[in-house]
């Protein structure tokens, strides 16, 4: 059997195994090659720039070369940016993927599989840390939405984390946020109302504002302006109660 036929057999076997055993198809980002290509095009453009400035003229052929090089340069940057926007695999999954490729193709390509490995979904999914934690640790029958149970039955049966926020996760998150907001208002008011002391009240207000700001910054995905407005509003409510109680 010729080497070409053997390589084609390995390719088909590798892809069939991926279809049967894996939900996603992971790929190499080729960080070194992408950067090498961009730098090479940069140098070509620098040489053209120097040529035009030294000769103080540009022929039609030179302009055509410039147009093609600029188009390649822009395309290389867009491609590199697109690949970097995809979610990177963790260390354990990267090692598994590298070993699989080595097992199928090591005899032909040597050890050239050390690279960044990615999946096809975007790295930034817009899910806040609280919902992401609930999606990871809640039981699968609650964490998975009805649509995702049908589209990812194997992952659902294996207890893996879902990708989409289910109705149960969303409602539980809203409930926890509402309860936390109530606690942050009621607890400091009770502390300041019992055995009133100006020093104790000021310390209570300061500590609660700092804790509230930390939760807003780390636990909820909101913009900087929303974080500032929420913290300032909470501080104003506490200061009003502090003034009334005194």
TrEMBL record:
The chain crosses the membrane at residues 175-194, 201-222, 228-245. InterPro entries: DUF6594. It comes from the Eukaryota. The keyword Thylakoid does not apply. Keywords: Membrane, Transmembrane, Transmembrane helix. Residues 25-239 form the DUF6594 domain. This is DUF6594 domain-containing protein. It comes from Penicillium hordei.
């Amino acid at each position: 059997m010729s080497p070409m036929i053997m390589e084609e057999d390995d390719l088909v076997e590798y892809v069939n195994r991926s279809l049967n055993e894996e939900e996603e198809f992971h790929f190499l980002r080729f960080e070194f090659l992408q950067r090498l290509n961009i730098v090479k095009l940069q140098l070509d453009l620098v040489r053209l720039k120097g040529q035009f400035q030294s000769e103080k003229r540009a022929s039609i052929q030179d302009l055509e070369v410039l147009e093609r090089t600029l188009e390649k340069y822009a395309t290389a940057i867009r491609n590199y940016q697109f690949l970097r926007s995809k979610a990177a695999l963790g260390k354990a999954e990267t090692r598994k993927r590298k070993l699989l490729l080595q097992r199928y193709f090591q005899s032909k390509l040597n050890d050239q599989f050390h690279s960044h490995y990615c999946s096809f979904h975007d790295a930034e999914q817009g899910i806040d840390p609280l919902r992401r934690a609930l999606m990871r640790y809640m039981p699968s029958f609650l964490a998975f939405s009805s649509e995702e149970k049908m589209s990812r039955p194997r992952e659902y049966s294996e207890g893996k984390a879902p990708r989409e926020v289910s109705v149960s996760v969303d409602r539980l998150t809203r409930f926890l946020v509402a309860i936390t907001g109530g606690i942050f208002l009621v607890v400091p008011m009770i502390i300041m109302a019992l055995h009133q002391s100006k020093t104790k009240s000021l310390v209570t207000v300061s500590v609660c504002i700092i804790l509230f700001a930390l939760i807003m910054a780390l636990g909820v995905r909101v913009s900087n302006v929303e974080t500032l407005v929420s913290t300032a509003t909470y501080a104003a409510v506490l200061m009003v109660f502090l003034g009334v109680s005194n």
